[in-house]
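User: Sequence in, structure out. Go.
Assistant: Echoing your sequence, followed by the structure tokens.
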Amino acid sequence: MNLANYRKAHASITAPAPSFKTGLNINLQPESVGEFGTDKADVLLKFPTVMPEDFLSEVFFRNNSLFTTHQAIADHYFVHVTKSTPCPLIIDIDGSGNLYYSLHILVDEEVCGQVLVRKKGTHTVLSEEIRIISRRNSKLYLLGIQDTEKGDVYALRQALVEDDAELDICDVEIGGTYVKNEDAVRLVGKDSAANVQKVYAAHERQRYDFSPCVIHAHANTKSHIVTKGILCDESKANSQGSVKILPNAPHSEGYERQDALLLSDSAKAFAVPLLEIANHNVSCGHGSAIGKIDEEQLFYLMSRGIRHREAVRLIATGFLSSLLSSFDETTKDTLHARVEKMLP
């Protein structure tokens, strides 16, 4: 499908056809230039003259004002993950003001890739949409790290996962004033799998809203959703994860878990796990736990000469440790530094 047919494909959207750009330095906002790419310019971003039709599928359309507004003003970029793509592919987003952008990521068959999106800056509004198509027998690990100073942050991930492919999405949220993070991963191929993780550390008056969703649209598919974070001061977090199994998806497995550790009396967390099952021959489950630090754990550490603040830090970082094992040391240090900063 030619890019000129983009508006026709989404008839209810009044946005113009998306413009695609390439290069190491891309002007992502009017007043500053953000780095957009990797260390190797020869395999940065490769744009075909014709947009892969799957990216314009109606399954990517969202009937809400936030999506429509984003499509109307966002810049669109195409990322092709091939066997020659450097691993990881690093995308840095920085700057100030309002920024709207969409990434379209295509993973070739039998390719294993990693994409790291690092978001910083002083944006008033940072709106991000990522569309992913994982071809047969491919594997993609997408890691997003959001550490903006202030402002509203909106992140939407949508994906189609084909036969025997696996998609891992992990978001680390430690910045922003209000953050809305949403996923819609559709397992359309047999034996496909998705793992979605959300890790966050909120303090002051930050508000985080997570809505991860995996849709099982084929037999023998698997999904695992985990949301885990710590909250301090007057921060709040809401997690509403969902696993949907369609009638044509027997022998599928889905599980979701939502945990939060409260470090102050004013911090609040809400967990709403949802299971929508339309086939009885499946295995699904969910769990959630929200609470404060166990006083016995705190007493045990302090009885061995560890000061109160350090004991709280050890417990908090230990609480997140189960999700940090796959992170690089820089990401771990960033998250640990945020926990240290949060403590009174």
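User: And one key feature?
Assistant: The chain has five helices and 21 strands.
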